[in-house]
Batch of 2 targets.
Target 1
Amino acid sequence: MKGKEQTNRSFFDVDIASLSLKLKLALILANSGIFIFILALFNVQLPSSPIFLSAALVLISAGVIIYSNETYGKKKAGVNNRGVWLTSITSRGVLAWLLGITITLLYIVLYFYPNLLGLGENGQPNTGLVALFDPLSLWLSRKPANQWFVYSTLYTLGIFIFGYKFMLKYKGNRYQQIRTISVMFFQLGFAFLIPELMARLNSENFSLPYNDFKNLWPLNYYNFEQYRVDQLLSSGNIGLALLILAVLSTFVISPILTYKYGKRWYCSWVCGCGGLAETAGDSFRHLSSKTLFSWKVERWTIHLTLVFVVIMTTAVIASYLGSDTSKYWLTKDAFLIMIGAGLTLVFSLIMIFKRKELGKDARYGAIGFFAIIMSLLGIHLFSSHNTLFFIEAETLRRSYGFMIGSIFSGVIGVGFYPIMGNRVWCRYGCPMAAILGMQQRFFSKFRITTNGGQCISCGSCSSQCEMGIDVRSYAQKGENIVRSSCVGCGICAAVCPRGVLKLENGSLDETISQSPFPSENHLGSNE
Amino acid sequence: MTLENVIIIGNGVSGVTLARHIRKLSNHRITVISNETRFFYARTALMYVYMGELTFEDTKPYEDWFWKKNRIDIIEAEVVAIDKTQQTVSLSNGESLAYDKLILATGSRPRTLDWIEEDLKGIQAFYHKQDLDLLEEHAPNNTVCKRAVVVGGGLIGIELVEMLHSRGIHVTFLVREPSFRGGLIPQSESNMISDHIRDWGIDLRVNANLQTIKAHENKRIKSIIIEETQEEIPCDLVCITIGVTPNIELAQSSDIETNMGILVNEYLETNVPQVYAVGNCAEPRNKAYKNKFAANWYTARMMGETLAHTICGNKTAYNPDHLFDAAKFLSIEFQSYGTVNSIAAPGNAQFHWKHELENKSITVEYSKDSHHFLGIHAYGIRLRHEIINRWLAEKQTVHYVLTNLHQANFEIEFSQTYEKEIVSMFHANFENIKG
């Protein structure tokens, strides 16, 4: 069907000759910047790298800024997503595949072959692209760059320049403006500058691990690994404070904020993955699948990742805890009992109070996962077996890091933007999103309110939902939308041609629906 | 409940809403017959397909498996005859089906001008999926279609203007009235939208009727002439959007009573037992119901839902209390609740506020004596349906409504609000009105 629709659409197709002079200039500038990176990558000796690095970053930024001004600058406030299905790069055309494959390959190199980027191994100095970034890294943290510094710099730049584009595109919508400034702030401050500057404080007898305060466990799955905890505990009060902050963030601060504002406080205001998705990934948001089938798949994959990260983290922490209470108050057994009790509490609360709101598959899934985790904990406590869950903690940790941390969140998560939409990782994989989502669904004031009977079923909201929620299926019945996956980006409300949707933090008891029409089954069937 | 054969002719919003609700309430056998598209799509969304915001697939509110799963049979055919005594319908494919209940949800079709030669190329309406395909052929870009003329200042007209504009096509918009929607809405609102249309670079011609269409030898159109000015405007496409007319031929040929539409009572029953009509094809016998049968998405959906109750044994009158409507004029959103006349009705008065610079305004109509709030128009401001509906039901005073307007605010979070400005203007101008 789409093939047929895409004929005769030369007006929107990328046709260089039809680009305005300014757009051509933007293209030339951005590509010149990228060209400097390519030269560096192939080890062309650039005379003075601070100048070339600055030039590359400035050229790329200038290109994107000119493009944004030219495309959205003169437009009036309103809906500015015309033609997304008519343009090759945003409708899974040839350009989209080329871009997707390029990003995917870059991520594979970044994660598994950093030497190709010029990372100096075994104390050798950096070469190539990584060396190009050395001056900036030395200036910030007094250390030479590595592949992660390169990545982090470009990531932050991406959020800024595409965030600028996003703000122009959604001008007149203050929610979008403020939200974008927020993700820019957290990326620049918390993810980029603070960790680099903190690295300056490190000396021979004082060493803090790399710390992005906003990167909470379980998204940050390595937060409680032995080397980090050891480092923190050996860094005096500051280290201890940071460790306590990490635990509080996940278990106290996050639930409070999610109760008040929904998971959006994190996913589309603070999180770095979300930040990139909302800015650089904005042009691909409509590509997410809206089918019921995808929703079913998503619920299994995201919760499986959550179970995986809980098991992995429990095993890793247990592996370095001792059994002697006189040495340290938290022993392995005490820790495992604590985890078991915590999981039992959450499981019971959901089963007692929210049982009716769970789908059949969710009920079976929850009971199944709970039974498995508890029996594994039980077997361990009442036997002399050394390895928790029968697999070495280190093996679990390495497999999680490889499969989830690298492949899923990085390679697929960003590489597949142009094919599967900008929230592939957030939707199908992120364990943090799973936890926040569970809370959002059951215990949060946040919902998207549907304005009575005003929906015209046009489907603009569903189409633009990056999480693949079929927003229309609720709106056309006059129901409010309370979905665990909703990241509260607010684009559905922005594009609705009848002003039917509003994100709000209301009262807890009216989150589901107060509609003038009888409510129907959420899955879109009228059984 | 005995199981019945329910046949619905037409799969637009009224027919499909009816089918869905019958399924929710019963196990009746449901058959939907249509010859437009196999699966229900939202007609309101066709414009977004042309503008590249949606694919046609996106316009379907239900996935294709939905119908089978909910045991709603779909037949792609045209109904050619109804046998009232045998209770059967004959289809264009030769089949004949028996019904216990028959519902005509045949909708409407665009009106046309009878003097237009049928074989001219480059003239069309915009209503069906087929019209979208035709438009794609006539106006794929601004090379093939340099200039287009849209005739008729209705809602479909302004949508076409926006669509053609999105592909860089120069559009001339002929409106019969002295301003866009003049005489239908208060004049200041009409002026605001007319200015907005011109702001977009649209060539809006008011007090303008189409006199004739000229064509090349090969039947491709080449220009139109405006009756009032005799001006000739060269163009490659003419879109005729001068309203719709109910599809009543099937009813007429089956001796079901019709006027402009198929005549029904408040239970949506026609004069023939077991035969009903819903949506745009229906016309109320009782003229007082005219507004409640206004041809739009909302009334069609409400009729469908109401009739489902009747069909399933709970006889329910179609009588929505407070009407509402919504539309969008290029980038100005519009919401309407209750009644606001173009000029306050006798015994009524209006309060009007407009933002100094932006396209935002509200108009409230109220009774002069009791000060009861009767209706509100809002442009560029989103209001909460539930609250306004309650105020209308409670017969609140205009004073109460305006001073509590913030409660009805449905704007996106962090949006600028205008209630203070509105209230202070109200107090300044209407000191005599007390709550």
Note: Chain B touches chain A through 59 residues (CB under 8 Å).
Target 2
Amino acid sequence: MSSPSWGAERLRIGLTPVILADQVAFLSRWGRYLSIRIGIEVEFVARESYQSILDLLFSAQIDAAWICGYPFVRFEAELSLLGVPLYHGQPHYRAYLVRSKTRTPEVQGWADLKGRVLAYSDPLSNSGWLVAQAELAKAGVSTRELKRGFFTHGHRNVAEAVAARLAHAGSIDGYVWETMRAQSMPAVARTEVIWKSEPFGFPPLVVRKAQASPQVEALREALLRMCDDKVGRDLLASLNLTGFARGHASLYDSIRHQAQRVPGSGLEG
Amino acid sequence: MLRRLPYRVQIPLGLSLAVLLAAVLVTAITARAQAQNARRDTLSLLDRAVVLVIAQVRPLLVADDTWRVFSLLRDTAQLVPGADADRARLAILSPDGAVFAASDPVKLETGRQVLGEAWREQPLLSVLEVDHRKQLAMSDGSVVLIDPIRSEDGQILGFVFTEVEAAAFAPDWASLARTALIGILLAVTLLGPLGWWVGKRMARPVGRLVAVIERIGRDDPGVLRDDVPRTTDPELSRIGDAVEQLMGELDRRKAAEARALSAERLATVGKMTAAVAHEINNPLAGLLTATQTLRLHGSTEAIRLRTIDLLDRGLQQIRTTVAALLPQARTEDRPLEPGDLEDIVTLVKGTAEKQKIEIRYQVEVESALRVPSAPLRQVMLNLLLNALKAAGDSGMVSARLQADEARVRFYVSNSGPVLSVERFKCTLAAESGKDPRGFGLWVCQELASHLQGRFELDSLETQHTCLLFEVPNREAPESQS
């Protein structure tokens, strides 16, 4: 993820499993693209867990982070929006419940998960944990009634776990699952969606509050204008996105309200 | 079939076949050994895989991280023989014996109780019984290993459950066969031609020896000796020495044959000289008697003319005999006449009178005689002289000349001891080589053969010895002269 060396000053952006961030060549191209437009070297830092990226952000080891809407609302007092990706032109996405493709599927919905194994993505993921907690509660299934629930440290791994039948079902980011399907990943072919959530605010890019600086503003502008040139559009297409918007904290009201209803979410009222 | 091939092809071909056979045997033995080691190797590999899993899985179990345990098992299972064919699987069991995560979640689903439950219709050990590694041989031939995972302070964190189906222990015959085939092909491709080349090189002196032996008798032995291959091989050296010895023996034999031929020629010349002397000497006694008669009774006209005529015929016989021995001197011979027998009897009469032997003779000629007179007179004279010799003193000799249209026969019998057929044949054989005095009978035999007749003991006569000389009543063959 190195870029042309323009000196010691550089911008570091943290990535979480909200995107398929393990494509080194793509991140290198994206970093070079942003570096040219900002005039400062841009570097991506990927971690498996949301918490790790938040720790880096709060300790000022990175300048910006692409996190989920749930940690944004949870740490809203310390974070401000840098930009919100547009998926099919909208700053929204959905959470999916997926199951293994079998001839006699055992799981038809959340209520069938009693006594079964459920795979989550990350404890700070909206679609990969918070939604599952809310829907299980709605279905009257206590997490203690699951045979087992475990985190896979990424939405992609949720699909892998369900495809291998390590878990009967998995709670996954709909955008990630669709992007995997678009890239014809084998795990998606062995899973199927049995439930989709209401639209939520798309996982945003955030910076620390009171971190306003010319470089951060330049980064925001570069992101917002990616859809204006062909290279930017190609990069967005690789991300299965259509652009970036400034966004507003109200986009995440539904997540906020949901978190307030889930015990242990950190926002419960 | 191999034995029908030339030796110099047999050796390289045999060597090549030996190489091929060795390659096949080595490959077969190697394959067999590999097959026998397959189970041990599989268990050994399993052991290492389990050790690796235990070392890696401890922190993951402590962190209750199912996904990472699954990832570890999925990757480690690739090391286990048979996992790719779904014949082996690994699982981490929680301390209560249920599946925490497995490399094959379809067969070992997450959360399933394993320890203390039936597995492949066979009860497994309970959690408390697994205090160290347990290896279970299942009834279907599969092997189950259960290893406890302990924390540093000895607390059970879980178990590694490893199962390998019986088929995974079976040798991969297809792979072994493929390897064997490659080995054999390499041996045939590389060692086969090498074996052929070495064999050809080994057999080359043999080929050269064969070529030398084939030329023995045709080429100069000196040249052949130079062509005998010189080799350090003791066996081939012995063969080469034997060939050279053979050539030496042949040389010596050839020289001996030449010497023997020369000696035989000399003997033949001597024999012929003796025969000529004998044939000339035979009528000489009669002719001398005739000259004596002429000297005593030459005043009588009739006796003188008859004696001179006798002398003339006797001398003519000698001349004809000599001419027959000299191919360059062709002499016309007259046909035999009935009076020739009387002539011959007159010639031997002197000898007979000395021994007081009575000679009786009889002429029975029914047809014109066409046989040449010289050989017949010679035969009659020889046989009469032999009969006189055999009859002994005061004996009796009978002669009979018989002729018809087809044949001319001359019988001579004597009153001496009876001669058996065997004795007659022995006499003939002895006379042919060793007895110079008895050339008469041998000459008769030769003349009978030449005139396409026969000379033998008359089998009808049993009281006396009677010899029969019989020839066709026709002119002598052209070659007589």
Note: The two ends of chain A are 42 Å apart (CA to CA).
